[in-house]
Amino acid sequence: MEKAVQVCVKSTKTWKKNTETQTVISSLEVKSVDTQCGGEKHDSYNREEKLKHWTYDLLRDEVLRSKEEIIRWCMDEGLIAKSRLCCHCDLPMKLVKCEDRSDKYKWECRKSVNGKRHKVEISIRKGSWFEKSNMTLEEVLKFTYWWCRDVRQEEIRHELNIAAHTAVDWDSFCRETCEVTLMEREHPIGGPGKIVQIDESKFGKRKYHRGHRVEGQWVFGGIEEESRRSFMVAVEKRDESTLLPIIERHIAKGSIIVSDCWKAYINLEKHGYEHRLVNHSKEFVNKDGDHTNKIEGHWRQAKCKMPSFGVRKIAFSSYLAEFLWRYEHKGKDLFSTFLWDVKKIYCEF
Ligand SMILES: [Zn+2]
C-alpha cells in the first residue's frame, strides 16, 4: 500500500497547487473534483456506497457523447489530469484543440520567458490509464467497461474492431491492475477472533498439452470464513519457509487459522495465530466443527476460471488476481470499482 499512498499524496499536492489554474480549461467546463469515484477523500471502506450502477447505455449517453464530454468526464473522475504546469516555465499550461491527435486536445505552453518564446506540449493522457495506447479514449473506456462486465475478449475485439494483440495487451493490463491492487491491499485478511481457512492446491495438472505433460502450479491460499476476502499465491515449494512469510503477510495476527495437517503449518501458534486442525485422512469436519470447505470450494471456482489454454507462468498470477478481484467484489459495480483501483495506480499527474 505504501506505493499507492505516496502516489496519491503526490497527486493531492499537484491538485492543490493547480486549483487556481482551473480557468485555463474553462472551455470544457470541468466541474469540481468531488465526484463519485474521484479524488483523495474516499477510502476503501466506504467506496461501495458511492459506486454508481453503470450500464452500457448510461456510459454511452452520459460519457461517450463526444470527445469533449469524454475528456471532461475523465478529468472529473480523476482519470486524467485536470491541469498541468509547464516543465519549462512552471506556469499553467493551456488545454488547446488540435487535429494531429486522436484526443483532439493537448496541453500546450507558448509563453515567453525573458523575451524568449518556448513551445511545450504534452498529451492529455500522460501518467494515466490511457497513456501508451493507440486506441481512442472512447475505445479504451469501452474496452475497460466490457472487461469489467466479463465479456469475452473475442467479443470485445469484434465490437471495437481492434487487432488481436491489442486486445491481448489490454486484457493483461486489466489483470495486472487487479494484481497490483491485491498486492497493495492495506489490510490483511482475518483479524482477532476471525476464522481463516488455508490450503494448498495444484493448478493445471491437466493431461497432456501438445504432447508435453503440463506440470502444474502449486497455489497457496486463504479465505475468511465469514466474507469474500481471500488471497492466493503461486508457490514453487510448500515448505514452512515459503508458506509462513505468505501467511504473515496476508493474514492478520490473532486470526484463527483452520488447516489440514500439512507439516508447514506446525508452528503457527508460535507466530501469533490460533491454529485449528482438520485431519483429512480421518475427517472432513473436526470434533469442534472446523472445516476447510470454503477454501476447497474457492479452489474449484478458481480452476474453472483459469483459461483452458496453457497459461505461461509469468501470466499465471495475474489470472489468479483477476479471479480473486472479481470474487471479492461480486455484486458491486465492477466498472466503478475498477476505475477506483486504476486511479490508485495510475495517478502520476
Ligand atoms: Zn511554459
TrEMBL record:
<protein>
    <submittedName>
        <fullName>Uncharacterized protein</fullName>
    </submittedName>
</protein>
<dbReference type="Pfam" id="PF12762">
    <property type="entry name" value="DDE_Tnp_IS1595"/>
</dbReference>
<dbReference type="InterPro" id="IPR024445">
    <property type="entry name" value="Tnp_ISXO2-like"/>
</dbReference>
<dbReference type="InterPro" id="IPR053164">
    <property type="entry name" value="IS1016-like_transposase"/>
</dbReference>
